[in-house]
Amino acid sequence: MTQRIEDYALIGDLQTAALVGRDGSIDWLCLPRFDSGACFAALLGDENNGHWRLSPAGAAQCTRRGYAGESLILETYWETRTGTVKVVDFMPQRDRAPDVVRIVEGLSGSVEMSAVLRLRFDYGSIVPWVRRADGHRVAIAGPDSVWLRSEPPVKTWGQEYSTRCSFDVAEGDRVAFVLTWHPSHHPRPALCDPFEALEQSLQDWRDWSARCTYRGPYREAVLRSLITLKALTYAPTGGIVAAPTTSLPEELGGVRNWDYRYCWLRDSTLTLGALLSAGYVDEAAAWRDWLLRAVAGDPADLQIMYGPAGERRLPETSLPWLSGHGQSVPVRIGNAAVEQTQLDVYGEVIDSLFRAREAGIPAEPHAWNLQKSLLGFLESTWREPDEGLWEVRGPRRHFTHSKVMAWVAADRAVRTLEADPSLEGDPARWRAMRDEVHSEVCERAYDPERNTFTQAYGSAELDAATLLIPRLGFLPPDDPRVIGTVEAVRRELGHGGFVRRYTPAPEIDGLPGREGAFLACTFWLADALLLIGRKDEAREVFERLLALRNDVGLLAEEYEPLAGRQLGNFPQAFSHIGLVGTALALDAGEVVGVDEEAAG
Fold first, then answer.
1. How does residue 546 score in pLDDT terms, banded at 50, 70 and 90?
2. Strands 263-264 and 239-240: what pairing?
3. Burial class (CB in 10 A: 0-12, 13-18, 19+), 194
4. What CA–CA distance (Å, rounded) separates 89 from 56?
5. Residues 106, 78: contact at Cβ < 8 Å?
6. What is the distance between the alpha carbons of residues 48 and 470, in angstroms, rounded to a whole number?
7. I need a labelling partner for 370 at 20 to 30 A (CA). Which of 48, 334, 510, 583 fits?
8. Residue 239: beta bridge partners?
9. Buried residues in 197-231 as b, exposed as e (16+ CB within 10 A)
10. pLDDT at residue 95 above 90?
């Protein structure tokens, strides 16, 4: 492992994404979808598991890099003793076939460039058969076929099961490489003009970014986060994956390695709020529609996550031929947490649909019936223990956050009926449920001696999810129990100026080892501080988080202050959602989406 997690930049075409290292190597790419098998998997192994490096001969790291304006088009600059070149990496929004385009442009002098393409299908395990055809290099293995060409043509040769080339670039020269995937039993797709695709992609991103309504002091960070969320969107359905990667470790050398290339219901309310608050109503509506399709069916069968198109079966297995990022094994694909019971997701879905209705997104005719069905199931199950939003693999417990979200479900249903009495429902029964949940949580999840809500009924452990209590409207921000919880979480879960989700332990989550500070939870701390009137402290926490972004503005799931490095899957939608929400809250002086009407 030569590259750290934060050494990577993201490119993508709104159906999949690639990670490009500071050394000019694409070390991760799944084709044709986010959750497909990777053809470049060096990120989780080594070069023999697939990569595509393009850089000046003998150069180790680029001089600098950044995105072209408000886009997802990566520009990497290399200054050498003989001259300077720029490499432009992007993936055009596709018609049919996915393309990866890499354009080398000479800026001064003359530079010898070197490229190594090592394709390995099925997560780095299958070496394809490579041949020449119509001026292309064609790699085929089973269902996968990849075509590589250059404009103007550059001589390539095979060496050590890889395709290589070497060429000189002088000032003003431009050499483009295009890698195209398609099913091996289909004809070759239409050729992509790399230079036209670059201009079109720049325009597409300029037009999209111009729709952002936020003009505050954190616009650059907010827009970069929104672009990242857009890049994690599976355009055909509107679903947003949690991250484009799997098994990047929460502890280097540890076993807390999970597949995040799916869409989590727990992210739905905060995602919707971030998109709506920045003016992206169409994207919010598409996410709402994905949500409705994914959760349709028997409420008892509701899952916590789904595939990008709403797929339900996400079986978990490990890939023993991959050594893991930083020797962190196992490398997993699929996610067994899909089979867990997490009662909070019922509240998340109902709250999301409530928010969408409040924002003026036209309601689908069947949406209210679906919400009634979900709430009806929750009425009979909210008293049961579950695995909680952190997907612990230990015993089920009565998690405080799960109970609070049951309260949210009942509260939003009541308020929906109050806003539209023409809808069918039983507000008296739902009010009774809301009151019962509220009373039980305040009695069984609150520790009066420490003046804090705890992770679960009767537990001593704390949980950063309790920071959401005032935002959700369960209690008002000035309630002493809220203030005590914020202070206790900051004190007991604080880690180098950031916040852990909880204190990892085998008896709680069933796993050995520890993890870093959780960035989304630290954004929640900033929000909670703002709500309880500590704006200066909130801004201090937020700007500490901003400083963690890598050189192209991206955040992983976690951060380890002692090692000074990012951890977990990357880039992480949850972290960037948190950034958008907190930035807008600090600018407006109030937390976006806080439910003051429900508080109390």
1. very high
2. unpaired
3. buried
4. 15
5. no
6. 50
7. 334
8. 234
9. bbeebbebbeebbeebebeeebeebbbbbbbbbbb
10. no
Cα of 25 vs its chain's centroid, Å: 22
pLDDT digits (tens, 9 = 90+) for 283-313: 999 999 999 999 988 998 999 999 999 999 9
153-167: burial string, b at 16+ Cβ within 10 Å, e else: ebebeeeeebbbbeb
Task: For residues 137 and 167, give the distance between their C-alpha atoms in angstroms, rounded to a whole number.
Answer: 17
Specify the 3-state DSSP secondary structure of 325: coil
Handedness of CA 35, 401, 373, 367 (dihedral sign): negative
Strand, coil or helix: 100: strand
3-state secondary structure of 341: coil
Tell me how far apart the alpha carbons of residues 304 and 286 are, in angstroms, rounded to a whole number: 19
Task: Supply the DSSP string of 60-89, one letter for each residue.
Answer: -S-SEEEESSSSS-EEEEEE-SSEEEEEEE
Contact between 549 and 555 under an 8 Å Cβ cutoff? The reply is yes
**Six-digit token pair at 471?**
């935002």
Mean pLDDT (whole number) for 312-317:
96
Q: What is the pTM of this model?
A: 0.96
Beta strands (DSSP E) in 1-119 are 8-12, 17-21, 25-30, 38-40, 51-56, 64-67, 74-79, 83-90, 99-118
User: Residue 270 and residue 279: Cα distance in Å, rounded?
Assistant: 14
Q: Sign of dihedral through CA atoms 547, 503, 521, 462?
A: negative
CB contact at 8 A, 29 and 100: yes
